[in-house]
Amino acid sequence: MLIEGYPSAEMFQILKRLFRTKVLHAIVLGQIIINIPILLFHFGGIPFIIELQLAWYWKLLLVLLQLGIGFVISLRYWQFMITRWRLKAFSMVKQDDWLLLKDWAKRSYLLHEDGSAWDDLERRTAGEHEVLSEIEELLQHFEIMELDKLNLEFPWRIEYRIKKGDAILELSLRLLFGVFGIYMCFQEQWFLGPLILLVILILGNKPAFYKYAFSRQAVLGLSENGFDLLLPHKIYIPWSEVVEIQFHFQNPEIEIHFYQSGKRSKVNIKLGTYAIPAPRDFLRLVQVYWYRYSNYADKLRQESASSN
């Protein structure tokens, strides 16, 4: 089964769903009462400091002072407001859409990953703590239900391609700056021209990335046996060799720790490179396949123990 990225028509349907379920209302409210004030506390005074008729080192000192004071004020403000936003947001949205709200709150930098140290910094009353604990328990229950649903719906292997649009954009920019670099060389700009060409050669993806982007070949495979990767290099990671999987939602990126030829290795999969519809769903798919392998391995151990 091969999954493409969301087409524009489907993205429009997603926005409609966010609006209909009032998830969009809750996210916009969070940006207005949390993220925007925090940005103002951090950086709001910097434009005024720059306009002051002072020496540059005094301006630098004032900017650093602004950032320090802004951080303290932002932290105290966040500690107070994030709990109020949580309570308001989850009261605005029906329980059936709470997972959707949680997902988009993480994407919008309103919530952190589960178990984050930031959660311990929130200022909650005993009543607020009790209500939010009940909400978290319900969210965990909904997560388990969704995993069971995915386990029934998805096949034993799923594949993803590279985002062709991103490859076209990156290649176009490299060609544009390459032409500009060559032009600067013709203008005898012997420092800037070669520097631009060198940066183009060093930065960006390798030729193999464009090769796979313009082909119909899948470069990331996920199955009951493990991971198949063609980028950044060809590698197969069986579940039996996987030690740990870390998922970084806001990057978004998945980090796999595994054993290869007796040595512990690590590979990072940048989800933005692939035509993966939603990072949260991909994480759940990884959990589904890991769950399938664990059950299979347990069954083999039980059969081996019974035969002995």
Question: Which terms would index this structure?
Answer:
three-stranded antiparallel β-sheet; 13% strand; 60% helix; 308 residues; alpha+beta; PH-domain like; 8 strands
Give me the secondary-structure topology.
Blueprint lengths: L1 E2 L4 H13 L2 H21 L2 H6 L4 H37 L5 H10 L18 H28 L3 E4 L3 H23 L5 H11 L4 H7 L6 E4 L2 E4 L5 E4 L3 E7 L4 E8 L2 E8 L8 H29 L1
Parallel strand pairs: 1-2
Antiparallel strand pairs: 2-3, 3-4, 4-5, 6-7, 7-8
Let me know the largest β-sheet. 5 strands, mixed
Terminal Cα separation, in Å? 39 Å
Shape category: globular
Count of runs of 4 or more consecutive helical residues: 10
Structural Rg: 25 Å
| Low-pLDDT residue spans | 1-8
Q: Proportion of β residues?
A: 5-15%
Number of beta strands? 8
Count of structural domains: 3
Order of strands, widest sheet:
1-2-3-4-5
Class of secondary structure makeup: alpha+beta
Overview of the structural elements:
The structure is a single chain. The protein has 308 residues and is of the alpha+beta class. It has 3 domains: 2-153, no CATH class; 162-215; 221-308, PH-domain like (Roll). It is 60% helix and 13% strand. It contains 10 helices and 8 strands. The chain has helices at residues 8-20, 23-43, 46-51, 56-92, 98-107, 126-153, 164-186, 192-202, 207-213, 279-307; strands at 2-3, 157-160, 220-223, 226-229, 235-238, 242-248, 253-260, 263-270. The strands form 2 sheets. A 5-stranded mixed sheet has the order 1-2-3-4-5, covered by helices on one side. A hairpin with a 2-residue loop joins strand 3 and strand 4 (226-229). The chain is globular, with a radius of gyration of 25 Å. The two termini are 39 Å apart. The relative contact order is 0.09.
